[in-house]
Design a protein that fits this description.
- The chain is mainly beta.
- It has one domain: 7 Propeller (Methylamine Dehydrogenase, Chain H).
- 8% of the residues lie in helices and 31% in strands.
Length: 157
């Protein structure tokens, strides 16, 4: 059993983008929204149907908008990988080896390009947030060498 929501060519900026294959989908944390990447560099934004307007079934996803993240054409820079990290960012891995971080309004936050990487097929992050490094508990001055002590004694003042 599968589900394929209705999509029209008018939702896209061009018919060549409309026929592009979908690559990966991910749910956006803490809301009812999901996004799907395409080989043409777009993301399709899905949300629950507008039941109040009498459209669709409960919990059915509907296309809300199409956002072009990668504007390069001929060839397109496709989206291979989508994930979220720390409930803050949408991370996009592209066919040109670039990695982009977006907020959930799809505004770019950071990007990594021109690193001579191949197609990004997978990326992962630790679930734990980074923590502060621990200060060394060792007195490093006792490791001074004889030469260090001689140099300290022969300072020119």
């Amino acid at each position: 059993m599968s589900y394929s929501p209705k999509i029209d060519s008018g939702d896209f900026t061009g018919t060549d983008r409309y026929v592009a294959n979908m690559t990966k989908s991910v749910f956006i944390p803490n809301c009812d929204m999901a996004v799907t990447g395409t080989e043409a560099g777009d993301i399709i934004v899905w949300d629950k149907s507008l039941i109040l307007e009498g459209i669709g079934e409960p919990n059915e996803k509907r296309l809300v908008k199409v956002v072009t993240l990668n504007t390069k054409e001929n060839p397109f820079v496709g989206i291979n990988m989508l994930t979220t990290v720390h409930d803050q960012y949408l991370v996009v891995g592209n066919t040109d080896g670039s990695i982009h971080f977006y907020d959930f309004q799809f505004k770019i936050v950071a990007w990594f390009e021109d690193l001579n990487l191949s197609t990004i097929k997978s990326i992962s992050f630790s679930r734990r947030k980074p923590r502060m490094a621990i200060q060394p508990q060792v007195d490093l001055t006792k490791f001074n060498t004889k030469d260090d002590k001689d140099a300290a004694n022969n300072k020119i003042e």
